[in-house]
């Protein structure tokens, strides 16, 4: 993949009689060097997380257990919802995408791979500000 657009990624399952194993390597299985990982679990089904965009960071989100949904918006009137429900499937989110994560199952563990170290300054948490910036870009 070379285009920076939202897309689902399928990772190879390397299963054998001992169980399953999925490998996610930076710069090959995901299109960036992985500088940070975090995971989200224990969120109630009525909680909405995310609610931000990132000026710089690209992410891949994988529900390694359980299920959740991600709603993404481009700030120009387009939105889409993706279901994350398989440990070998992820979603690639480039920078400058608004994201809401919700509908968490009780057993949801949402693994997030990020292209950058944490920097609160590059998070846009106000939707109007995001819209304005998104519309200034090409
Ligand atoms: P937040 O970005 O609100 O989480 P989510 O996107 O899942 O809704 O982050 C929650 C808190 O954790 C907030 O105080 C910032 C902190 N945090 C870090 O310190 N480092 C990180 O890499 C992340 C993702 C969050």
Largest sheet: 5 strands, antiparallel
**What form results from the Cα inertia axes?**
globular
Mean pLDDT: 96
In CATH terms, the superfamily is Jelly Rolls
Poorly predicted ranges: none
Number of domains: 1
Strand content: 35-45%
Number-wise, the strands total 10
Bound molecule kinds, no repeats? thymidine-5'-diphosphate
Q: Quick one: CATH class?
A: Mainly Beta
CATH architecture verdict: Sandwich
Helix content: under 10%
* Widest β-sheet, arrangement of strands: 1-7-4-9-2
Order of helices and strands, N to C? EEEEEEEEEEH
How would you characterize this protein structure?
The chain is mainly beta and 138 residues long. It has a single domain, classed as Jelly Rolls (Sandwich). It is built from 1 helix and 10 strands. The strands form 2 sheets. It has a 5-stranded antiparallel sheet, with no helix packed on it. Strands 6-5-8-3-10 form a 5-stranded antiparallel sheet. Thymidine-5'-diphosphate is lined by residues 36, 38, 40, 49-50, 118. Thymidine-5'-diphosphate (TYD) is lined by residues 36, 38, 40, 49-50, 118.
């Amino acid at each position: 993949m070379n285009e920076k657009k939202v897309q689902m990624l399928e990772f190879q399952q390397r299963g054998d009689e001992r169980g399953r194993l999925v490998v996610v390597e930076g710069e090959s299985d995901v299109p960036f060097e992985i500088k940070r990982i975090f995971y989200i679990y224990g969120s109630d089904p009525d909680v909405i997380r995310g609610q931000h965009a990132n000026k710089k960071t690209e992410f891949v989100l994988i529900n390694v257990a359980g299920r959740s949904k991600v709603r993404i918006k481009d700030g120009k009137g387009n939105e889409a919802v993706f279901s994350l429900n398989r440990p070998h499937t992820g979603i690639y989110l480039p920078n400058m995408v608004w994201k809401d994560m919700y509908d968490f199952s009780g057993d949801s563990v949402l693994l997030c791979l990020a292209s950058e170290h944490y920097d609160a300054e590059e998070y846009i948490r106000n939707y109007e500000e995001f819209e304005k910036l998104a519309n200034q870009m090409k």
